[in-house]
Each structure stands twice: as C-alpha cells, then as structure tokens.
Amino acid sequence: MQNIPINETVQRIASGFPGYLEFRYHNRTMRSLGVRKGELNENSYKQIQGAGIRVLQNGAWGFASTSDLTEIGLQSAVKKASAMAQSMSGRKKNRVNLAGTNRLATGEFNLDGYFDLKSMDLEQKFHTVQTSEENLRKANSSIETAVCQYTEVFEEKYIFTTDGADCWVRLVRPELRFVAYAADGSRLSRGYDSVGATGGWNCLFQNRPLEDYIETAARNASDLLAAGPASGGRKKVILSPAMVGLLSHEAIGHTVEADFVQAGSVAQGKLGEMVASELVTLCDSGASEYAPNAGGELPVDDEGVMTGKTEVIKDGRLVSYLHNRESAQNFETQPTGNARAWEFSDEPLIRMRNTYIAPGKDNLQEMIAGIEDGYFIDGPEGGQADATAEFMFGASRVRRIKDGKLGETVQKVTVSGNAFDVLQSIDAVSSDFRWDLGSGHCGKGQPAKVDAGGPYLRCELLVGGAQN
Fold this sequence. Notes:
Shape: globular
Strand content: 35-45%
Structural class: alpha+beta
Oligomer: single chain
Largest sheet: 7 strands, mixed
Number of strands: 24
C-alpha cells in the first residue's frame, strides 16, 4: 500500500467529521525460525493488516476495526464507531475528555534497522540459528537437547487524529532465544539466555557476542545439575540488570499505570511521597536511554503522542504516573505517550515502553564485598506481582556470596516481597547499565513489546528455596 493514497483517503474522511477521530493503519509481518536437535522445527510467516478507528462524541468512545482499506471500507468503519459512541453517550455518568498536548507527532519516524533487516537474506538468519543450536548442543557432554529460535517483527503504522497527529512509524524487533537441557542420569536441568532489541541484525550482538549467549545457556544448564539448595530467609542480595528490570516493570511499573491507579493500586494518592531510597530514580521511556536499541523503543504512541521519557520515581520520590490522553485529563496533567495497541483490532491501553532504574555511582565489586552472607541473583524466570506491589519471581542463575566473595552456584530460587519495601532497602546502585528484558511480551489484556533493565542493585528481600 502506498503512503499517499491512504493519507489522502483518511484526511478526506476525517475532514467533515463532527468530533474527535483517531485513525491507526497497522501492517505487521512476523517471521520465526526454530531449530531443535539439529532439525528445523519452526518456519512460519504471518501478516496482519488493517485499520483501527476510534471516535469521541458527546463524551463517549466508539471503536471499530476493519481489514477493508478501501475508502468505502474505512467510511463504513467510521460510521460504526460513531454509532457506538452515540449509543453510549446517553449512558455515560462521567464524560470522557482528552488532555491537550503540544506533542502530537507529524512526519515519518523510521527507526534504525528496519530497511536493512528487511533486505537481509533469510538463509543467513537460518544459518545463524542452525549453527547456534549445534554449538549449544555440543557445548558440553551433559547437554542432551538444545533449542535455538529467531523471531523478527516488522511494524508499520500510520496514525492520524483530527486534532493534529499525522505520522508514519516503522520499526523492527528481532529476537534470539537459546535453551539447553542437561541431564546426569538422575536430574534434568534447563539453562537459557535470550536477547531482543529494536533495530537491525547487528544490534542483537552489541552488548555481547553470539558465543556468549550460547555459553551462558550451556553453563546455566550444566551448573544446575550439581548445584546445592539455597538457604532461605531475608537476605542482602545483588540484583542483576535483568532482575532489576523485572522488578521495575512487573512490581512497580504496573502499579503506576494510571488506569490501575484509578482502580486502586498501591500507588494511588502517593504522588510526592518518598517511596524508595533516595538512590533510586525509576523511569519509563519510549527512547533507548543509556544504551541503544532497547526492545520497547517507540517514538510515537497509538494516540499519536510523542513518547519521550517519564520520571516515575525521582531520587526516591514518586513524581508521576503513566498516562494516555484520557487519564491525563482526569489527573490534570500531560499525557506521557503510553497509549499502545497490539493489533489494529485492539483499542489502545496504558502500557509501558522501556522501564528502568537509572545507574548510580557504585562499583559492582565493592557492592559484592559489602555482603557477608547473601546472593548474586540473575536469570529471571517470570513470576507474579499484583496491585499491592507484592511480588514473587523465579531466578535460575544464582550464586552464593560469602564474606564479600562470589561463591558456588545454587539451585533456582524465588525472591519475594513488597517492591516498594525493596526499593527502600537499596543501599548501593552500580554505574553499569544494560537493557536485558527485550525478548518476550508483557501481557495486560493484550500483548506489548517492552524492555526493562538498569544497573546492579544491592538490597534486601526474601529468598525462597530451590525449585524443581
């Protein structure tokens, strides 16, 4: 589809519309390649293309989507969305209003890597997946099975609103995943590593070479075979950037999304309060702060608002929530560019982009030296968190710290607590920084591509025993 026809068509339809109209054209193509035990086990391609249309009339929303991108098809969708808004307007107790903003996007936003990766030969990508799986499978004698998977998602959007947004956004998000299964006759263990980014092929290896991901997954699997159990209890620990990212996103980030705040999350009413150590500044950004090619990079949100950076916690104090235009109006503030929709048939929700804790000034080795009995915790394996900021996460790459020195690997552990209590306990923040959660998706009614990360943190939390 050419840019000019759809631009002209949308603008012609919107020109006489009696209210607010938001149009979002979305073309997504996805490809996955997977190799397991030396055999190709996945080779898929999928494309979705269509338009989502929201209208706001008489204080009520109406939404419709269509894959018919002709002028007749788009006009029909606008009429359906308008009819829905009109039917709901008389039933609304609280009228919807949108915050004004001077950050509506115009022009083209083509992020690095989009065109380069599109032109890259498929055979080169498959060769990397195939050889990576073979090298992982042969990394040591304990590994019985290996899996390597590559995924790429190309996104192209045209966003138009009747109050000023008029832009194209193009980006691509590649990912690589490595999984190894090791056995010794009586035990089976799993090791993994992954990387995801926004950008071209080479951005996957800007922090670590390909061989390092393979070695980490293999070592993780084999080390767990011989690992002893962790001793549980409240411990002083070092959290890796990946674990910091998981804590920041799952246990803090969701509590400050304005729709969750309005529903009664723990962050409600706490603006201006000290909620963390003064060493902590936590942000959510559409840009890649401190390091390039974060997996949730997004220049414009799905309401046409430029994303920018939002300081959520500054020097320990809660200073902002994450907003779309509707919630910003309710809170009498500016939208933060956090409205996102997964597919053209989805309505935008308040979602994070790249969530992180800013680096500090401490040295990692000195941070470790300050722990008499604790753990170095890496290898996040998901978990759960709720609106109270209570969380429980798994971790698979864990080493004991004894008398200020890194010791042996222990079995998988769980870490838990209240995220804001954990942030209060932080007494050291390293000068390092890494994006480390760019693979996978965030779920909140619909998926979203995000990233999270930060420095190494020294804090206290509850460490649970081994997981099987």
